[in-house]
Amino acid sequence: xxxxxxxxxxxxxxxxxxxxxxxxxxxxxxxxxxxxxxxxxxxxxxxxxxxxxxxxxxxxxxxxxxxxxxxxxxxxxxxxxxxxxxxxxxxxxxxxxxxxxxxxxxxxxx
Length: 110
Hints:
The protein is α+β, with helices and mostly antiparallel strands. It has a single domain (7-109), classed as Alpha-Beta Complex (Aspartate Aminotransferase, domain 1). Helices cover 44% and strands 11% of the residues. The chain is built from three helices and three strands; from the N terminus they run H-E-H-E-E-H. Strands 1-3-2 form a three-stranded antiparallel beta sheet, with helices on one face. The chain starts with 6 loop residues before the first helix and ends in a 5-residue tail after the last helix. The relative contact order is 0.19.
């Protein structure tokens, strides 16, 4: 930390851009998610159009249909049911690609 005092700000900016790319992209296709303030994860309620699915079923569909991996909320305890978790580990271009794949795979949103 002493050798790179600006590094935490740089990392914060990377994750902010990734978060905004995901949140804004999903909003454009009808999946509105609260913008987290400080994490490398985004928790998203399963969209209302798919609310009859468990988090495991929805996460499985995301992998099979959109080719995008999300973590089912139930894997984090009973309070996580009804949610999925995105890890902001990919760059903005890959996140934009994932949003395009969701647009095709989740027709009930549009």
